[in-house]
Amino acid sequence: MLDINLIRTNPELVKKGIGAKNANVSLVDNFLELDKKWRDLTKKVDDLRSEQKKLGKEDKEKGSKIKAELKGLDENLSELEKMRDEVLMQMPNLPMPSAPIAKDEKGNKVIKEVGKKPEIKNPKDYFTLALDLDLIDTERAAKVSGSRFGYIKGAAAMLEFALIDLAMKTLVKEGFTPVIPPVLVNEKSMRAMGYMERGADEIYHLPVDNLYLVGTSEQSVGPMHQGEVLAGLPKKYISFSTCFRREAGSYGKDTKGILRVHQFNKMEMFIFCEPQKSEEMHKYLLSLEEKLMQALELPYRVIDTCTGDLGDPAAAKYDIEAWMPGQNGGKGEYRETHSTSNTTDFQARRLGIKYKNAEGKSEFVHMLNGTAFSERPILAIIENYQTEKGTILVPKILQDYLGIKEITK
Q1: Does the pTM of the predicted model rise above 0.85?
Q2: Contacts for 150 with CB less than 8 Å, ≥ 6 apart
Q3: 249 phi-psi bin (left φ>0, alpha ψ -120 to 50, beta other)
């Protein structure tokens, strides 16, 4: 949620910001119109209440008239406030000045490329390799659950546990507190995180219980401190959860394999910090993601996400895309494995999460999130570590955990 005072004092800045994220700029004028009516009516109500307090006992008739008038005005005021807040909630977070301005993902900027791409003759894609080694089974998953589901089996399942172990050990040393959060959240919490106004079609909803399945554990870790005044910032969490997404906008994309699925596991980093430190914390999260990728010795590139490709809550976002040599018919292609977002105070305002600054004044915290590992790095490992004989070498850092150096039939 945006700062109401910012909208009142600098509406053109807000229009420019939400317009850069492809949101309807007329929301600003709609809000200001409703806000003026709300403020005018609030003054009228306050004036009447002040007059009511000054009346003596002998002015019962006038007091009764004011009381009746106030009842009607209070109802109008409540309705106006509700309408105003509905418009406010539809405005996305403003992008940071550093975010590249563009309409869609074509405007994303490559910051750097890291690592050496493997030289593989006639590389196969991960799904072909996984089927041959019996590591992934989507056929049986389709019989059990439908399309876009899969069984991860054998050494691939062990790779997932090894990645969890690697991330946990790395991040606990960095001061992150491990947490396994709920995967079902109530409507208040999901809405406060900013994913309901534009993107609700991606979320699984259980109408009977009015609960929502998380698409990422930030959606349950963020609301954990709602309504609190935090001390000891920054607070850093590393969470593990199963995540669920409808993949509503991906019809026809990645239909084979498990690059886009309805259910997957993910480890998510989450930070609550002081506003003046959030840009630093954002770069810190990116550095940790890179550290984990470099530990796996996977080639990757870092993307600065443009305004038109930012989600509603994000003010700035970096993506990491791993090189996958078997994609694009063996020509190779970069595919996203990580993202990290700075949502500034957008989610904190909705959730009422504050801290006390050096002067003892309460301010909203800034909230940030970033992927540690999902299941996609498993697929990048399969493609980058494939051998000409159809086996898969295990990254050195994971060999002790798996107890093998090579995945064979």
Answers
A1: yes
A2: 136, 137, 138, 141, 257, 258, 261
A3: alpha
pLDDT in tens, 31-52: 999 999 999 999 988 888 888 7
CATH, domain range 105-407:
3.30.930.10
Distance CA 316, CA 300 (A): 20
Whether 295 contacts 397, CB under 8 Å:
yes
Q: Which residues contact 229 (CB under 8 A, 6 or more apart)?
A: 354, 355, 356, 362
Distance set, CA 196 to CA 135, 199, 204 (Å) = 36, 6, 11
Q: Count of CB atoms within 10 A of residue 216's CB?
A: 23
DSSP 285-345: HHHHHHHHHHHTT--EEEEE--GGGS-SS-SEEEEEEEEETTHHHHT-EEEEEEEEEE-TT
For 206, the enclosing helix (H) or strand (E) is: strand 205-206
For 138-181, what is each residue's pLDDT tens digit? 999 999 999 999 999 999 999 999 999 999 999 999 999 999 99
CATH 3.30.930.10 in the chain is located at: 105-407
| 271, containing H or E segment | strand 263-273
Topology of 4-89 in CATH? Answer: Helix Hairpins (1.10.287)
β-pairing, 316-324 with 229-230?
Answer: unpaired
Dist CA 379 CA 171 (whole Å): 22
Owner of token pair 């005005």:
73
Q: What residue ranges of the chain are covered by domains with CATH 1.10.287?
A: 4-89
Give the H or E element holding residue 272: strand 263-273
